[in-house]
Amino acid sequence: MELLRSSLSRVRIPEPTNRIYKQECCVSFETPKSEGGLFVDMNSFLAFGKDYVGWNYEKTGNPVYLHIKETIKPVSEDRPSKKPTLLAIGIEGGFDNNEPEYEVSYEIVILPNYVTLPFPSVELPEKVRLAVDAVIMAAGAERKEQVSAWTADKKLVSKHAMDLKQLDNGVIVPPSGWKCEKCDKTANLWLNLTDGSILCGRSNWDGSGGNDHAVNHYNVTGYPLAVKLGTITADLEAADVYSYDEDESVEDPLLAQHLLHFGIDFSSLQKTEMTTAERELDQNTNFDWNRIQESGQEVEPLFGPGYTGLVNLGNSCYLAATMQVVFSTRGFCTRYYLDQNLKMAFDNAPADPTVDLNMQLAKLAHGLLSGKYSLPATKKDDAGDTTNSTLTAKQEGIPPRMFKSVIAASHPEFSTMRQQDALEFFLHFIDQVERINAGNPNFDPSRSFKFGIEERLQCPSGRVAYNKRHDYILSLSIPLHKATNKKELEDFQKLRAEKDAEGKELSADEIVRPRVLLKDCLDCFSAPEEVHDFYSTALDARTTAIKTAGLTSFPDYLVLHMRKFIMEEGWVPKKLDVYIDVPDTIDIINMRSRGLQPGEELLPEGGDSGVKLVASEDIVTQLVSMGFNYLHCQKAAINTSNAGVEAAMNWLLSHMNDPDIDDPITNEAKSAPQYSDIDPSKVDTLVSFGFEEELARKALLASDGDIEKATEWIFNPPSGTSHMDTSPSSSTAAVDAVLPDGDGRYRLIGLVSHIGTSTHCGHYVAHIRKDGRWVIFNDDKVGASKNPPIDMGYLYFFERIDS
């Protein structure tokens, strides 16, 4: 007891604002149910498993811990089920899964010698009793986050919804091509329901997200309601409506009416859902479900290292499927498992390891890859006696709660219990990993997915322009007209017509889907494409240019995204009901882009100063019909060289607030900055990054001397701009020197499949090639796959075959 009294200064009584962890270890997946129980630090209120509590003592010197141990209670078979009061599973008030009840025991443990004192005990100092009672009575931080995520979906009707003022300004919102009106953001965009402004969302703490333009617009105008673009589907209740005045997500019962004001008509959308094609898709849902999950088949359960399932936290299958494939790649396995043990990650973590992405990635990696948690679940007898227990064919899996909490901190949508798009999650995850490894790019595993894309534009003069960007996924259109089973499709169309005439519906077995080769999808990406109304500086005239695209580097892992979800006219979402025939290996060497070639000549930077470019009347007319100012539309067409409506609209949305936007169009050339105006020290800085001096000067000239913007310009030049110089390979080498590269031969190692009519509903499942066989990862279920649905993938993961 004296030892405890001497450590009272390191004991804290928790305050209501303190986060108390008592359900799961911060660095492992140990719980109070684990053999060693859980140790709660009575100073920081962080929890640690038996094998890890010593690390915390070494790091912090905190000696006093509350040890929590849960043991199963014997339960009678006729225990009545509790009535749920919350749409959730596994939390208080949620559905009763008939999980066993546990008896909880507590004791005080003093490190480093693990001296134990019983609790409760009147002999304990009052401060200790008060602190322990507060910890026991408090809801754990893990449980608080879980409940918060579920209850976050309970939206109230906004007080502004029923009498919302909408301006009659003629704004018509197109179904795609959105961009923030005040910056270049194309994601996290919000449509203001009063004036139709499209603006980016809030900036997150780490610099990601938007630039606060939507909320700033509210602060200036007072227009309270906005809906997030991309969440508008046939299910209007799922649309994300936010009230800036009420500062929370709300429900708008008149959302359909408010959207119709801006040309988004849902009457046609509702009708389309009842078409024959949609009914067939609904009929196929059960087939998809069984095929992708391999339901009805005897799947051999697998256990051991690399075969650990992930518990579904509530519509978190998008996360589980994606992370299973990610941690089957060498880069992530090496970075967060082989080269970094848990002790190293914990020592490098901040005071609270639960908010450190590196720590939680290491924790998740060790949980998935060590095999420690991939064991058959133990089924005890009715009395809870482990001596008579049996092993079940199912494993318990590990719950990725802390990882989900950290990765969602900079993307609020992932913190909810709603289904999310696996592609969007993958890109957000890769972005966050790249950020935390920015200071040490050689150890950044996200680089293994990164590659360069180069677009080549050639006008009838024979001269060319090149644009470059980086990406982590190759998004492919699906050419249905190249289906390989056209005869079967023709027969199916005849059968469908006969059934329709008889008033009968087709059965799932009778439906025939198009089959398209993956090679044809890849060919579509690099196939020549006409760009109409392209302004050629060589011809000083509008013309038709030919655009082709290729890859400047081949990544270690190539992720192919199949565009199965498209938005048709009238905002009608459609899922392409199609099979993709994917071979085990592919060779994309023909997709290599090599930049400016000998004999090619770049388009000049500007045309004859005496010739005035005239705006395309077709482009201007279409933009005006959307509600934009006529003069602004003319300027947009001119400044994009009449490249098309989408390019002009993107320019218009990003230049709406330019101070000279309302100035008349003149033929006078502005005095352009010269190379002599550039700060030589900034040129030297970019050169030190590995860029050519001429390229550095051009980037700084285009970016008003801002180094950060100049670097972004090099990697992602504006549309229609070329930064290719005299050397055919100079800029290609400068931009892509740090990217992995090799031959264009790849082997399929995994796929993420989706069941459902939208990426924001349904279910995701992963299939991964491991140890020479295909394995299905369906949340916490892991087994040998007998018939992997390779032709039904949404995301395909290929590994480059090294020579």
UniProtKB/TrEMBL annotation:
Annotated residues that bind Zn(2+) are located at C180, C183, C200, H213
Entry-linked PANTHER family: UBIQUITIN CARBOXYL-TERMINAL HYDROLASE, UBIQUITIN CARBOXYL-TERMINAL HYDROLASE 14
Report which superkingdom the organism of origin falls in.
Eukaryota
Membrane-spanning segments: none
Q: Which GO biological-process labels does this protein carry?
A: cell communication; protein deubiquitination; proteolysis; signaling
Please state what class of enzyme this protein is. Answer: hydrolase
What the entry lists under SUPFAM superfamilies is as follows: Cysteine proteinases, RING/U-box, UBA-like
Which keywords appear in this protein's UniProt record, sorted alphabetically? Hydrolase, Metal-binding, Protease, Repeat, Thiol protease, Ubl conjugation pathway, Zinc, Zinc-finger
Which reaction(s) are listed as its catalytic activity? Thiol-dependent hydrolysis of ester, thioester, amide, peptide and isopeptide bonds formed by the C-terminal Gly of ubiquitin (a 76-residue protein attached to proteins as an intracellular targeting signal)
Instruction: Supply the EC number(s).
Output: 3.4.19.12
**What is the official name of this protein in its record?**
Ubiquitin carboxyl-terminal hydrolase
**Family membership:** Belongs to the peptidase C19 family.
Matching entries from PROSITE patterns are given as:
UBA, USP_1, USP_2, USP_3, ZF_UBP
Any GO MF annotation of the entry: cysteine-type deubiquitinase activity
Q: Which organism is it from?
A: Fraxinus pennsylvanica
Which part of the chain is the UBA domain? 614-655, 677-717
Q: What is the lineage of its organism?
A: Eukaryota, Viridiplantae, Streptophyta, Embryophyta, Tracheophyta
* Active-site residues per Swiss-Prot or TrEMBL entry: C317 (nucleophile), H763 (proton acceptor)
Q: Where is the USP domain?
A: 308-801
Please describe what this protein does.
Recognizes and hydrolyzes the peptide bond at the C-terminal Gly of ubiquitin. Involved in the processing of poly-ubiquitin precursors as well as that of ubiquitinated proteins.
Tell me where in this chain the UBP-type domain is found: 156-266
